[in-house]
Design goal:
The structure is a homodimer. The first copy, chain A, has about 120 residues and is an all-alpha fold. Chain A is about 70% helix and about 0% strand. In chain A, helix 4 runs antiparallel to helix 5. At the A-B interface, helix 3, helix 4 and helix 5 of A face helix 3, helix 4 and helix 5 of B. The structure holds a DNA duplex (30 and 30 nucleotides).
DNA sequence: TATTGACTTAGACTAGACTCTAAATGCTAT
DNA sequence: ATAGCATTTAGAGTCTAGTCTAAGTCAATA
């Protein structure tokens, strides 16, 4: 699969794909005889995972750490699990924060709708 | 209230408070005779709102737009409501995205825990 | 064969949101 | 009154995560 096809499939840019490869989140992707990337199914699986985690706000740094551990082999399984568990906690907290803000936002909108808005911002 | 007290109360830095004031999210905050900020209750209310919305990911740009509309008076009520409704939608989508990612993360952790991990990242 | 368009690289640039620095002034305690 | 810490300003610097540019290569088409 070409970079363009992958980019379209996952709704991201060619630049971002090359950038992820450069920082070591994916690949190195195989190139054909004339130097053009040809993404494998395994590459696609990784990209999907990375994309999903990035969209949830996991940093490139933490994902890189996870990928590096994975590359080191089975001996890092427990460490990888712990890393993911930490990110799970952070994510749960973030979702909680956002849900609280959403509730406040909804309440304020309700004040607008019922014209019970007070004099403050 | 001094900038330091406000910063502590809301767990942010003096710099951030001055920055928010510079870009027009709050204030201008009153200064005492020797030029030092003295935050009013109204300032605090604003800061709390801004802080909450920022923590949910609303951009400074959009919050500035909201504040500017507020400053223009009652004639902008409907526009403000619409702005908030749009942000509500975005926020709901973001929470959904994050919840989906969280589910995948939990599933992967479960694979680690039960040692059913497949050979992929 | 010439052009067009996709791909490649290295490296510069950008946006957003702070965060820090320097130099000046002010407040408090000794 | 002097030290030592907090505050002020303008403006520079930082960090993250891309995004863009320039210069070059390659394959397919007119």
């Amino acid at each position: 699969m070409t970079i363009k096809e992958v980019a379209e499939k996952f709704n991201m840019t060619n630049d971002t794909l090359r950038y992820y490869e450069k920082v070591g989140l994916i690949g190195p992707v195989k190139k054909n005889s004339s130097g053009i990337r040809d993404y494998s199914d395994n590459d696609l699986r990784r990209i999907e995972f990375i994309k999903c985690m990035r969209s949830a706000g996991l940093s490139i740094e933490i994902l890189k750490k996870y990928v590096d551990l994975y590359e080191k082999g089975d001996s890092t399984k427990l460490e990888r699990q712990h890393l993911l568990e930490e990110e799970q906690e952070k994510l749960e907290e973030k979702i909680k924060t956002m849900t609280d803000a959403l509730d406040k936002l909804k309440y304020k909108i309700e004040l607008y709708k019922t014209d019970k808005l007070d004099k403050y911002l």
